[in-house]
Every structure is written in C-alpha cells, then in structure tokens.
Fold this sequence. Notes:
It contains 20 helices and no strands. The chain is an all-alpha fold. It folds into 2 domains: 27-201, Growth Hormone, Chain: A (Up-down Bundle); 221-417, Growth Hormone, Chain: A, CATH 1.20.1250.20. Helix 7 (151-180) packs across helix 14 (329-358), helix 12 (275-303) packs parallel to helix 14 (329-358) and helix 13 (305-322) runs antiparallel to helix 17 (396-409).
Amino acid sequence: MSTFTRRSFIGKTAVAIGSFAALRTNNRWVIAIAGVFFQIALGAVYAWSVFRVPLAKQFGWTISEVTLTFTISIFVLGFAAFFGGLWLNYKGPRLVALTGGVLYGLGVFLASFSHNLWWLYLSYGVIGGVGLGLGYIVPVAVLVKWFPDRRGLITGIAVGGFGAGALITAPAATGLIQSVGVLNTFAYLGIAYLIVTVVTGLFMQSPPDGWKPEGWTPTASQTSHRAGRDYTLSEALKTWQWWALWLLLFLNTCAGISIISQEAPLFEELTGVTAVVAASMVGLASIGNAVGRVFWAWISDLITRRATFFVMFAGQLLLFWFLPNIATVSLMTIVTFVVLMCYGGGFGTMPAFTADYFGPKNVGPIYGLMLTAWGFASAFGPLLIALMRETAGSYRGALHVIAGVMAVSALLPILVRPPRDRDTGTGIASRVARANPSTRAVAGVRP
C-alpha cells in the first residue's frame, strides 16, 4: 500500500467517523453491544502468532524476537489500563475509548513501516499497547455500572469479546498476508481497528450516579457479598482485600498464560503429533479463552465470585496434575480447552468481583491498577515454565509445580471477604437489613 493510498484511506476514515460523532444513547443494551465489538477489535492482539513466521522469514528475525512484540504490548496494556481508569473518572469514558482506539489503530498501522525490531516494538508493542490498555478498561468500567443486576454476566460478555478477537482476526490476517504481504496487512488492519474502535467508542458513556434498572433491588445474598459504599482508589489500596484480588488474578493468569505460551510444543511432546496437528489443537483449545470469560462470569452471578474462583483453582489443580499423563489428542485438546476457560474466567469474573467489594463508581482506576497483575503474570508465567522445561528436559515437573500453586491458590477465595463499611461502622448484617427491611429482626439490627 503506497503512502498516498494510506493517507487517502485515513482521510476517508476521518470523514466517516465524523458522521457518527453525534451518536448518543441511554439504552444499556446498545452500549453493551458496542462494548463487545469494541473489545473484539482490541482482542485481535491475540492473533499475533500469525505474524511470527512471516516476519521472521522476511527480515531474518528469530521467533523469540518477534514474540517479544506481543509480550511488550500485553505488559504495557496492564499499566495503561490503570491510567485509563483514572482518566475516565475525570473526563468520562468516551474520550478515553476514542483515544485508546486511535492509539491502537495507529500503532498497528505504523507497524506497516517496520524494517527493524525497535520500530516494531515501539509501534505495535508500545503505542498499540497503550491504546489497548486505555481501551480495554472502558467497556468494563461502563457496563458494570449499567448492569448492577447482572454484573458478572455482562462484564464476562464484554471481555469475552476480547477473547474472541483472535478467532475473527486470525483467518482474515492470514489471508491478507498471503495476498498483500505482512507489512501491508498491518496497514489494512490498523485502519480497520481504528474505524471499529472509534465508532463503537462513541457509544461509551456512564449512567447517572446511583442509577439502577427500574424495579430492581439487590437480593440479601447480593448485598451480603458487596461493599456498603463506593471506595476511592487510595481507600481500596489500604484494604487487604484489594491485594488479595490482585493476587487471585495474578495466580490464575500465570497458570493459563504458561500453557498459552507453550501450547504447540507441549502438544507435540506429550502426544507426539506433528506441528500442523498441534497448530489445529491450539486453535480449538483457544476458543476456551473466550467461552470461559462468559461462562464463569455467568456462574459467578449464581454461586458468588468467591466460589467461582475456588472451583476454577480446584479444577486446575487436577487438570495440571494429570496433564503430563495424557497422550491422546482429543483428551489433551479438551483438558487444555478447560484450562483456558479458567484463564479467561479470571478476566470475566474479576471486574464484577472488584465492583462488588469496592463499589462501581471508581471501578475504572481500582480494577485498572489490578490489571498490572496481568502484565506481571505475562512475563513471569511463560518464563517459569520455559526455564523449568529447559532444566528438566520435559514439561512434567513444570506442570506439577503449577498444580501445587493452584492447590495453595484455592485457599485464597475461601479467606477473602468484602471490606468493612468504615464510613458507617456497620457490617454485613446491617447492609442486608438496609436492602431488606423484613430481615432486620433476624439480623439483630434496629430500624
């Protein structure tokens, strides 16, 4: 794609976006749909693997050098999400979403000019990563306020879009690489991401303070697992619960991303399949990432967030322990699918968990900072399993270590509880009583 053609595309894109500038809606389902498409565009970053071999062949880079681009973008995402959460509290979600969308699209577009690694790292990794972080936090923070009655499900659907992004982008990117080359593919995709994120970002807006669906009141069970007020970021950081949730997300992400980083070679070693078959297994198992974000988030609305994390950790304990003994392709694919469901389930459930414990008002910065766990896990998990594989010569020891970590991790959701309501000096019983006056006598709280 020539420089002139690229500029022409950008000019037409600006005109098209301008025609949508007046879009406004108070329909929470329209906002939710826009949020899902916004996340699908951002989640295309998970399709990075399709660029590894073409870039390595064209420029003579190693696979690890090319893969570092993805690591940089996810690491930057974790920290940019925090600043995005702070910013949207001051300027509103729409501006943050638009900025994130522009930076993400621009970063991918600029990657089309890559002729050395540092430019690829800067454009796709840093600029694109900042856009990812700013954009990722917006639908989560917005939808958790619009859907107090379905916090788990709706945030699961939103981040499920992020998990599903690669399923749509990977085949499209593969076709483009074959027809126009890898660098021009970055240009086309960058423009497409910019259009989708900016148009859908225009729908991002928060409801008025204190808004709730007409006729809805929280049940006694919901109230007992939620904070009695909205915490600020500084107040949340002073509670041990915030750090406990950070650790929950970190541990769950470490387990899943360790498998993601080694899927193909792990399949080849344990089942003896060819690289082509292993690649197909990776594709099938990766669907679990998207499915788990919605499934576990929905389950968390039914059995509580704490019980959901306990079940995910306990399940992974068994799966990782028996994984080295599996030699059949079908069973290996199913087990890995479930592991990645748990990986995605952490991201689907944690936004609602955070809103439950610290209130929805400041969930942007509070959960945004919590996403640094994602950045640290993306560096620690793959490094740990790779080093243990190198040292031991097989994956068995590494997988058993992860199983042990999951066993210890299962204790954490049992111990965690909502923060006490320090402003009013009341506890869970009084919060239940305020939501359901008929329970006051049982709770021992006077009217």
